[in-house]
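Board work, copied verbatim: Dehydrogenase/reductase SDR family member 11
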Amino acid sequence: MPKFWVAGLARRKDRLDDLANKLAGKKGKFYPVTTDVSKEEDILRAFAWVKENLGPVHILVNNAGICKRGNLQDDHIEDWESVFKINVLGLCIPTREAIKDMKANNIDGHIIHINSIVGHQACRGASVYPASKFAVTALAETLRLELNSLKSKIKITSISPGLVDTEIVPPHMKTENVYKEEKIVGPAEIADGVVYALSTPLMYRFKS
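↓ predict structure ↓
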């Protein structure tokens, strides 16, 4: 087994397989695990596979997210539920499972939430998406307080980018002018932020 390995959890198996093929021959190993994070049973099955085939969890990056464009005056509950199911519960469940595994194996692991700038300042036109990201901000801080109270060395990081060139951004926002004005960044830049966060040293100060 390689020294470094990553399990990638996502709904679309074809996309996971394409990524695995692109990473073939690179340092480490990528394992595609088809998972719908809106379904707890899928998440539990994925974690069971990881523990059985790869070993204990050391790092969790919560990156799944959706945005339903609209406004709070007219939107439907089905849209609201889907956003919170993925952006909030789809983050809480993997976090719970990862921390349980880290504790069971005495691992000082790292949990990283990919948040958003709208998790700190609201915006129009995104319906409950900002609320879901404000929840991520609160969840990261609440988890930090919980872990500190237990004197745990498990780290929690929340990364809050602005516009990122992914499928969540509507095509009309991906204009040449937006790129020239540096209002949008690429996924690789967010990955660099994750790597930097993982490289930071442990801190053993505990605050109540």
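The domain at 35-199 is CATH 3.40.50.720 (Rossmann fold).
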